[in-house]
């Protein structure tokens, strides 16, 4: 798969989630907009309210804690936010037609079976499902690459999840740093965990980002993130469960452009001069004769200076030049060369 090819760049995912606001036409439009903005993939979510929770309004099932969804019940939220399963073949077909990857986050085992018919390139596991080991086993047994978000997870919980996935057939795995707040504050992003996870678990690492703006994803790329996932909407003015912390198309396109620039800037560790630097060598200092001198003259410190441009011998050779005899006459402003010394 391209994302697991070391020669590919950062893989950018537009997370549609609930930003279709219950409209298939809006969902299809978002697929096209994601493609236009330069995303490599669109991602949806596959669940029903009844596969996630109970239709119950006691205190256990009410939403509290300072989120955007305070006051409602879990069932109400998921009923409003879910992507109808009958839309899936239409959305996958549209993505295939316009040439953008499409895959989903299954939230239970039946969703995995349902998604398999679309031959998705990956399965995504949401942060909240990282501890759902039966789901992890089911996904791993498909043999498809897995992208696992790690919001709220301890190192031990990630270790256990990775073990389940690898034990049950997952060969290609990517872990995403995620802060499960909506929206998240940049000071809680902890991007340093991205390279640490890549090394600790021997896999690709990236970022599933809930911060506002594009600075955090770009910083993540500088730290080695190979995947960026960002929520995507047509307009934050359209109310929806996820729109408040999503990027609009112009912002998403700006993020893609900034990520590509950051990738180029990071490059690979080497010490060869760039083409631009080669031209700059002329402005280094070097050794120049600063007097008219006859052949046979014994060179002194007053005869040679370390000045710009860089067309003479390097300054490190000054001691070797002083005290030598000129093999030919030189004029002021002549760059020192070995041929001048006898």
Shape: elongated
- Helicity level: 25-40%
Mean pLDDT value: 94
Q: What topology, given as strand order, has the largest sheet? A: 3-2-1-8-7-6-5-4
Note the beta-strand portion: 5-15%
CATH homologous superfamily title of the largest domain: Aldolase class I
What composes the largest sheet? 8 strands, parallel
CATH architecture heading of the largest domain? Alpha-Beta Barrel
The total strand number stands at: 10
Which CATH top level class of the largest domain fits?
Answer: Alpha Beta
Detail the poorly predicted runs.
none
User: Roughly how many Å apart are the termini?
Assistant: 64 Å
Structural category: alpha/beta
Helix tally equals 12
What name does CATH use for the topology of the largest domain? TIM Barrel
Q: Number of domains in the coordinates?
A: 2
Q: N-to-C SSE series?
A: EHEHHHEHEHEHEHEHEHHEEH
Radius of gyration: 30 Å
């Amino acid at each position: 798969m391209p994302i697991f090819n070391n020669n590919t760049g950062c893989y950018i995912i537009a997370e549609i989630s609930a930003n279709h606001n219950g409209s298939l036409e809006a969902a299809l439009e978002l697929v096209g907009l994601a493609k236009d903005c330069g995303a490599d993939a669109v991602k949806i979510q596959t669940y029903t309210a009844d596969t996630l929770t109970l239709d119950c309004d006691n205190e256990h099932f009410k939403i509290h804690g300072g989120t955007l969804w305070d006051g409602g019940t879990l069932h109400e939220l998921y009923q409003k936010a879910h992507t109808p399963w009958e839309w899936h073949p239409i959305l996958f077909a549209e993505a295939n037609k316009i040439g953008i990857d499409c895959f989903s986050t299954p939230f239970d085992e039946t969703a995995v079976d349902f998604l398999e018919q679309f031959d998705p390139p990956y399965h995504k596991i949401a942060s909240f499902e990282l501890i759902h080991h039966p789901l992890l086993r089911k996904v791993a047994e498909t043999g498809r690459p897995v992208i696992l978000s790690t919001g709220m997870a301890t190192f031990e919980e990630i270790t256990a999840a990775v073990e389940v996935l690898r034990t049950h057939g997952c060969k290609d795995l990517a872990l995403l740093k995620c802060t499960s707040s909506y929206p998240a504050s940049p000071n809680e992003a902890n991007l340093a965990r991205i390279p640490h996870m890549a090394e600790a678990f021997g896999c690709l690492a990236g970022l599933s980002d809930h911060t506002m703006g594009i600075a955090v994803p770009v910083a993540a790329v500088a730290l080695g993130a190979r995947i960026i996932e960002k929520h995507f909407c047509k307009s934050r003015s359209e109310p929806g469960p996820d729109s408040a912390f999503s990027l609009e198309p112009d912002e998403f396109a700006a993020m893609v452009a900034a990520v590509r620039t950051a990738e180029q800037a990071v490059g690979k560790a080497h010490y060869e001069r760039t083409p631009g630097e080669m031209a700059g060598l002329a402005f280094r200092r070097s050794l120049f004769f600063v007097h008219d001198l006859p052949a046979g003259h014994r060179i002194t410190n007053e005869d040679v200076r370390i000045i710009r441009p860089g067309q003479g011998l390097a300054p490190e050779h000054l001691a070797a030049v002083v005290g030598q005899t000129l093999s030919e006459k030189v004029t002021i402003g002549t760059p020192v060369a070995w041929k001048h010394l006898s």
